[in-house]
């Protein structure tokens, strides 16, 4: 039987609807309107699209968007000043600096300058440390989306064997911590892992986040496993009648995986939409925490 397709678009739309309802109640009952500041440095077409989509989603959910576009030549001092201003602005509950940053700017200095209470990307070492310590915190959006998607397949993840391919601070490490917090047995694989295919075949839950187009083949997947494909890669387009310049593919060979897995996220339309929905959720949570209110429990 072909795998169940985990419809990230629909699941994200449902979450966004819940966030919008909660934002509406917050405004009506407390006069609070959560705000998100997104900072984009330089002219990168893909990042511009991401930022535009994020802002649109923010305003559609009833929150305020404070976007700031800076030139590629911006100095580290100017960027730090801007973050300082957002840290001190009560209308801004969340701050996100779109990566990558130009080389004259020290990435760590920038990420560490963001007030951890407003760090909706969850990249600040304080939030990273809290996550690793099992404390409540703002959690990176993509990993949060991955776990929420897995939970639409498994009511409980406890006891499952998971393999996460990739150990980046953005995806691999935080998703592993989140899974551990769900009582999953986690193996983290990376570019030096020996016999990756055999390691993957152990997984009830396979999270592919290495940025290698269609590297996970059908015979790497345990029959019936749940596969969360985080990868977003540009691959050469189709030839022939439906010829196209390029197409977006994941880290998993979808056509093969769909015949083996029990459930699978598509690319596009899987993890991607959840990342934005979780950013909205994090902004709402940050606003609640900053106002001494309980965080959303949906
Ligand atoms: P990254 O920082 O480049 O990290 C890639 C990780 O994969 C590294 O840990 C690397 O291992 C590992 N890796 C690379 N080649 C490998 C191989 N041949 N075998 C095993 N492991 C390998 O990437 P990232 O930022 O985590 O992103 C990963 C993918 O997710 C990318 O396609 C990215 O576009 C996508 N992504 C999607 C979203 C979304 O919203 N859907 C969000 C973020 C990222 P080493 O540590 O040993 O080098």
Cofactors, ions and other ligands in the entry = NADP nicotinamide-adenine-dinucleotide phosphate
Low-pLDDT parts are: none
Rg, Å, rounded: 19 Å
Query: Major sheet: order of its strands?
Result: 1-11-8-7-5-6
Percentage of β-strand residues: 15-25%
Mean of residue pLDDT values: 96
Distance between the termini: 32 Å
Characterize the main sheet. 6 strands, parallel
Helicity level: 25-40%
Global geometry: globular
Order of helices and strands: EHEHEHEHHHEHEHEEEEHEH
* Class inferred from helices and paired strands: alpha/beta
How many DSSP E strands? 11
Describe this structure in words.
With 298 residues, the protein is α/β, with parallel strands linked by helices. It contains 10 helices and 11 strands. The strands form 3 sheets. The protein has a 6-stranded parallel beta sheet with strand order 1-11-8-7-5-6. The chain is globular, with a radius of gyration of 19 Å. The two termini are 32 Å apart. The model has no long low-confidence stretch (mean pLDDT 96). Bound molecules: NADP nicotinamide-adenine-dinucleotide phosphate. NADP nicotinamide-adenine-dinucleotide phosphate is lined by residues 142, 165-168, 170-172, 189-193, 196, 209-212, 230-233, 271-272, 275.
Question: Gist?
Answer:
The protein is an alpha/beta fold and 298 residues long. Helices cover 39% and strands 16% of the residues. Bound molecules: NADP nicotinamide-adenine-dinucleotide phosphate.
